[in-house]
Write a structure and sequence with these properties.
Elements lengths: L3 E2 L3 E3 L14 E4 L9 E7 L9 E5 L12 E2 L11 E8 L9 E6 L2 E2 L1 E6 L2 E2 L11 E4 L10 E8 L5 H8 L4 E2 L2 E2 L3 E6 L3 E9 L4 E9 L3 E10 L9 E7 L3 E7 L6 E2 L2 E2 L2 E9 L4 E9 L4 E4 L3 E4 L2 E2 L2 E6 L12 H13 L4 E4 L6 H11 L1 E5 L10 H15 L5 E5 L13 H5 L6 E2 L4 E2 L2 E2 L19 E2 L4 E3 L10 H10 L5 E5 L6 E3 L5 E3 L18 H9 L3 E3 L11 E6 L10 E8 L10 E8 L9 E5 L11 E7 L5 E8 L19 E6 L2 E6 L2 E6 L5 E6 L2 E3 L2 E6 L6 E8 L4 E7 L18 E6 L5 E8 L3 E2 L4 E5 L5 E10 L12 E8 L17 E3 L4 E6 L5 E5 L5 E4 L24 E4 L23 E2 L6 E9 L1
Parallel strand pairs: 1-7, 29-30, 29-38, 30-31, 31-32, 32-33, 35-36, 37-38
Antiparallel strand pairs: 2-3, 3-16, 4-5, 4-7, 6-14, 7-13, 8-12, 8-16, 9-15, 10-11, 10-13, 17-18, 18-21, 19-24, 20-21, 22-23, 24-25, 26-27, 27-28, 34-35, 39-40, 41-42, 42-45, 43-44, 43-46, 46-47, 48-49, 49-50, 50-51, 51-52, 53-59, 54-55, 55-56, 56-57, 57-68, 58-67, 59-66, 60-61, 60-63, 62-65, ...
Length: 941
Amino acid sequence: MSRVIFLLLVIVGSFNLYGDAPPRTERLYLSGTGKDNTVTWDFFVSEGMNSKQWSTIEVPSCWELQGFGAYNYGHDDFDDRLNEYGLYKYEFQVPDSWGKDEIRIVFEGVMTDAEVKINGKMAGPVHQGAFYEFKYPISDLLNYDGVNTLEVRVDKASSNESINHAERKADFWIFGGIFRPVYLERLPADHIDRVATDAQADGSINADVYIRSDKAERIELELYELDGTPVRNVSMQNLMKEQDKWSIKAKAPDVKTWNPESPKLYTLRFNLLDTRGAIVHQVDQRIGFRTVEVLESDGIYVNDVRIKLKGVNRHSFYPESGRTTSRALSIEHVKMMKEMNMNAVRMSHYPPDVHFLDVCDSLGLFVIDEVCTWHKPKLDTEVGRKIVRETVIRDVNHPSIILWANGNETGWNTELDDDYARWDIQQREVIHPWNIFRKTNTLHYFNYHALANDAYSADRILFPTEFLHGLYDGGHGAGLDDYWKLMWNMPTVAGGFLWDFADEAVVRTDKNGVLDTDGNHAADGIVGPYGEKEASFFTIKEIWSPVYVEDRFIREDFNGVFRVENRYHFTSLDNCTMTAKWMRFSGPDDAVDGLVLDQRKVNLPALNPGEKGSFFVEKPAGWTSAHALHLTATDKNGNEIFTWSYPVMRPEEVRPQPGGSTEENKLESSVENDRITVQAGNMTYTFSGENGRLLKVLKGNELIPLRDGPTILGHQDKVDTITVSGSKEKIEIVTLFEKTNKSPAWASVKEKSADRVQWTVYPDGLLNLYVEFKGKRIAEDLKGISFSFPESAVKHKKWLGDGPYRVWRNRMKGSRFQVWENEYNNTVTGEAGMEYPEFKGYFSNLYWAKVEGRNNNGFTVFCHSPQTFFRMLSPKAHEAGGDPKKRVSPYFPAGDISFLKNIAPIGTKFQHPETMGPQGNAENYFGNDDNPMLMELTFKF
């Protein structure tokens, strides 16, 4: 049944400088190394898909994704169907030369209870806890001259109820299987068992070296650059020997510190020497020199700098492999977080793969490492102590880890709080996410007004380990600008963590491969399940930019000055570069590419972290002919920080000029049966004689289905008069509404002016629309106009304005002003379609839009009114039950296509937008009661 295979042999360590290599730890992989590299084992599952028969499975993997067992989400109750177990069998050989060494079998992660046998004998006690590395010494169980049989029984549900509750009842997908790599570890008989290091920012090194040796005489330390270059003058200052642990103090002068902005790493080499001075075992450990302090009622300090955590929660997950990931995926995820200008990540709600922490070390992210608990009941103390020990021992040396989290949301066993210090040489602080504990307050999902922070916990360091809980297109970027303005400037706020990084949509092998987020439970991501960037990705990128550029507008008297703040913690602003591009864009009927009229470097000031100043953008000759100014900031590694865009030309300047009357283009009008018909060249327009709205558009004999507008939103005034007048150069249709007197008693102006709609038709068919309507001083409804254009008739849109993603009132940042285009899609963010950017929604700062029809020519509209929003259709409603409290289902007005002066905000999974800050409030300020609002558009068919 099983096969015998020699597998990958790995020498553990980054390099070897010796001609005769000293003994080092070796690995022999029995499984693959991740989702993209697996090995076939024999397999049997007790229940569900493909059960009750032996077959094969790829390892590592989650067996549901391999077509076995049953899928279930964490809120499900377990029954016999879900309590499946799996039996694994694999045969292997080991080299004869290993016979005198110590051999261990290592499992990086098994969900959930694992019973391991080698050649029919138990390797050790059953391991409980899915996300924790465990190992057994198996030297005495191996055949060195023949075949060895590995058998593993994996129970998806644990026999320990507290483990079962923590890992099986949580708010995430539940899987079974050997989901992380399995390998044999070979160490010499006299060896270093493990090391724990504490490398401080001043170059001090403390290390605990755990040994198993009767021959060891001393330890020798060496420090290297990652490329193998020795670091000189590392001095051993003290060595204290115990039976199985030697404690070392050393000093490395002139080292560079580790931080997320400059994640400098070194290799610390430990040589275990015998009485003759021969190396009996050599171990390399990657380290970073940095100091972490949590100062009471003050903040979190790294290398003596008080930091703000700009973080996100992240699950170890991939749609086609569940919890089985890869180093490549870890790199991809960390790079995306860095691209959003994040500096921190929380391991929710369990320790990640080792390679993810390695990548956080090398690319630079602060990490909160967490053990898995879930609400109450708490984790049993006995098994909890084992889990804490396994977590800290595995992860202790990572410089990226700055805090430990003792579980999640009331699942804390307080008897375990002090266990972290037993195993952590760095003595990092422990937090309780969603709790006021010791020096910190990590409350979850508070509303904006809670940032007044006037409660009895005002002296605690505040950093929510979950806030702005994303759901579909809500949260994340929506509301973040309001929150962050306060959080950045509050001294005792140490930042926060968004929930969460990616939609956890799993491929259902039992449902023809559909992506399943379990309704609204797992559609929480800033990115889609395969890393598709949603709009909030770019909003976060701008708000959390370490180069903070103050908002401004460019007008004719633009002086070139921009105010800037250095929001780095460790980097001077002059380490960054900035480029100014004066852009001119193509028209609706041209290619999308923009023209750079002028490009030049901007000199950024040498601002230290936290300092404010300004920079100057030189204005080239003819700068006012540009459509926009783009400013791109780049970090010292050449990565874009953000590109800000500023319209230069006013929208009324982007106006098509109508053609005059010719023999081919003549104007004719008629009024019959309350219908006003205007013929202009090959265009025929029909308007209502009752309300002045456009009823029908014909181009030749082709119907273009733009109609029923303009409908003035919220307008109830009656029509007073409709007049038709004209000449050979234009025909005007003017609708005046009755004057109304709805001002409050305290208003100084009692009578409002009449609202007005004016159509102007030109001989070449250009159709101009001018609308005046009341600008109520404070309004909760949307102000603007709408038209009908059937969704089924829309194929494509191209526009000059902010994009490419839609906006909400409380998510305006992250866009760029230029020409964009995309094909129609019916994406429901995080739920269906997964095609981004979404086609439907509100788009800001419209100058023009070309709407291509399906089976019709569509139209182009030019907007001459500044700060106008373009509404393109209404997003599809969420599936039944997806948004039961309508927090992430923003309002859209009647009609299909709208031109608006204000738009709706969006909430989060747990909050309505009005609790998320000023931008989420429904009230809008439009000036004096007697000031009409103006909207002017030109349509070209």
